[in-house]
Amino acid sequence: MVPVNIFGIGLNYRARAAETGAALPANPVVFMKPTTALAHPGDPIPLPLACEHGPEVDYEAELAVVIGRTAKDVPADRALAYVLGYTCANDVSARRWQKHGGGG
Asked: The whole model's pTM is what?
């Protein structure tokens, strides 16, 4: 099953913020990934030609939380009732474009 949306949380731990020289955000930094960014385990990760040379592509091992049913305005004490499970994810980013090319 292909998910409807993929959300990520950026700078969500101190070591990553320190590594990038960024201040810890006051609120979560939420970003989206398109569902076309998904790949099955073992599948190659296609890279745009612009990213194949130089220190462009970076990857991070991530904890992925799979939400199993529709949720809106769920109180914090009931949030885990909506979690179907957990898995690992490989977040691949083009850092130069992200930082200097308008990728925010």
From this structure: 0.72
